[in-house]
Specification:
By secondary structure, the protein is of the alpha/beta class. The protein has 2 domains: 2-59 and 322-478, Aspartate Aminotransferase, domain 1 (Alpha-Beta Complex); 67-319, Aspartate Aminotransferase, domain 2 (3-Layer(aba) Sandwich), CATH 3.40.640. It is built from 19 helices and 16 strands. It has a 5-stranded mixed β-sheet, with helices on both faces. Strand 7, helix 7 (203-215) and strand 8 form a beta-alpha-beta unit.
Length: 482
């Protein structure tokens, strides 16, 4: 991916690939979109894909595979044990991370489950730069607590700081002192801080974190699911990484880590996951749980075809043209929206464009889930499915009290090698229209609320008939246009 300056003086992202296979999209009329979001309980996770025009819910498992990946899937060895496919994946994993041991799992949260089962006990703490929904749920289910220690700048909507995902080293030392090193299960660093705008952390900050962990004999765990984006920002924004190859940066992160886990639905562009470590002791403890929860040690719940695709995908992650597409498209979308006065997270991060719902819908109280309401309204206005990343993505405490998120974001993910620039411009245009009509949008309330991970399958309803008013305004402004 390159950003090319055109003769007109404008600068646009330029795809460094060609499209050879397409999938037809469907843009249904606005009235049908209103019915679809109602049937989905105003939860974009519950929308049927046939009713979605552009799926910007996530980049997980929906990135476009390369021709090399698809070709590799054709010669997979489907043996239950001793598969040559596993041998190839293991070799690729060890080469990529420089680690001695690899354990396969069916996806990232499966890795988090294994880690929580082994390391987390009642009364233990897991300090992190910022939590992820499944990681936090699995830690708390096992009796642990999560301490979020992202730097103050990380929770600011507007900023020029290049590494807003950094952990606060001073706070980390304070938490270790408060609980005692023996009660710190591990320190978790997430590359890409999924819930606060896909913001990266620096190699310098990770080095300092590793020093603290090793001084206190605490395992340092790297969630490398969004590592590709983080590598891009390390290379572009960090002076110490400027002359390093992408692989040299990866190996440095791995050297500083005790355990690395990842979702291959993101890193590697397949569907699976894995855990890597250089510790024989940690490896043996975790290995016992793989056949129990995931599958045999040579497939770990993954299909062999996906394993072949991941092996190639990891190799392609070291190609700057490949890893740059997401960040450059996101950079374009964020900057265009920012110029138009739409409140978005800056600087542009990885994973997607993040819209600040609390500013966008400043008239909607947080107990009416402004990010969820914005997601519903945006689907009605555009046919685009985004994801709520705010209070809906949290869960109530033991007393049933709502836990309000630090941020209320609508995440518009940009899967790699999937959308064209004209589609991104459509997404921008419809968001601008919605912003100009934002006073029509009101909040949501639950009528079916699960206790755990409610954002996946909970159902909500509008607090008023605001959606019918929004549809009427859309039809008035756009006429017969979809």
């Amino acid at each position: 991916m390159a950003k090319v300056k055109f003769y007109t003086g404008e600068s646009f992202p330029l795809e460094m690939h060609k499209v050879r296979i397409i999938q037809k999209l469907n843009l249904i009329p606005v009235e049908e979109r209103g019915k679809a979001i109602t049937e989905a309980g105003n939860n974009t996770f519950l929308l049927q894909n046939r009713d979605v025009f552009m799926d910007m819910l996530t980049d997980s498992g929906v990135n476009a595979m390369s021709d090399r990946q698809v070709a590799a899937m054709m010669y997979a060895d489907d043996s239950y044990a001793g598969s040559e496919t596993f041998t190839r994946l293991e070799k690729s994993m060890k080469n990529f991370f420089g680690c001695k041991y690899f354990l396969p799992a069916h996806q990232g949260r499966a890795c988090e489950h294994i880690l929580s089962q082994i390391f987390v006990k009642k009364g233990y703490v897991v300090p992190t730069n910022y939590h992820f929904t499944t990681a936090k749920a699995l830690i708390t289910v096992n009796g642990g607590v999560v301490e979020e220690l992202i730097i103050k700048e990380g929770l600011k909507i507007k900023s020029d700081l290049p590494f807003k995902g950094n952990i606060d080293i001073e706070q980390l030392n304070e938490v270790i002192k408060k609980y005692g090193p023996d009660k710190v299960a591990y320190v978790r660093m997430e590359a890409g801080t999924n819930l606060v705008g896909g913001q990266p952390f620096s190699l310098e900050n990770y080095t300092e974190t590793s020093k603290v962990c090793r001084a206190n004999n605490i395992p340092l765990v790297l969630d490398a699911s969004l590592l590709a984006d983080n590598l891009y920002f390390n290379k572009k924004r960090e002076a110490a990484c400027k002359d390093m190859t992408l692989h040299e940066i990866v190996l440095k992160f791995a050297e500083l880590s005790d355990i690395i886990y990842f979702s291959a639905r993101k890193l590697g562009f397949g569907r699976g996951g894995g855990i890597c470590t250089n510790s024989h002791e940690h490896f043996l403890k975790m290995r016992e749980l793989i056949p129990l929860y995931e599958g045999f040690l040579t497939y770990g719940g993954m299909s062999v075809r996906e394993m072949e695709a991941i092996a190639v995908g990891l190799d392609e992650t070291l190609d700057e043209d490949m890893i740059s597409q997401g960040p450059i498209f996101i950079d374009y979308m964020v900057k265009e929206l920012d110029k138009l006065g739409i409140p978005v997270i800056t600087p542009p991060g990885g994973l997607g464009c993040h819209v600040d719902a609390m500013s966008f819908l400043d008239h909607v109280p947080q107990n009416q889930y402004p990010a969820g309401a914005l997601g519903s309204a945006y689907y009605i206005a555009s046919g685009i499915r985004g994801m709520e990343r705010g209070t809906l993505s949290e869960q109530r405490d033991e007393d049933g009290k709502e836990y309000y998120s630090n941020m209320e974001l609508l995440r518009l993910a940009l899967p790699r090698r999937v959308f064209t620039l004209s589609q991104v411009n459509y997404a921008i245009d419809r968001l601008v229209w919605l912003y100009e009509n934002r006073r029509l949008v009101e909040g949501l309330r639950f009528y079916e609320e699960p206790k755990i991970l409610r954002f996946f399958y909970g159902r909500l309803e509008p607090v008023s008939d605001w959606q019918s008013k929004l549809i009427a305004k859309f039809r008035q402004d756009f006429g017969e246009s979809l």
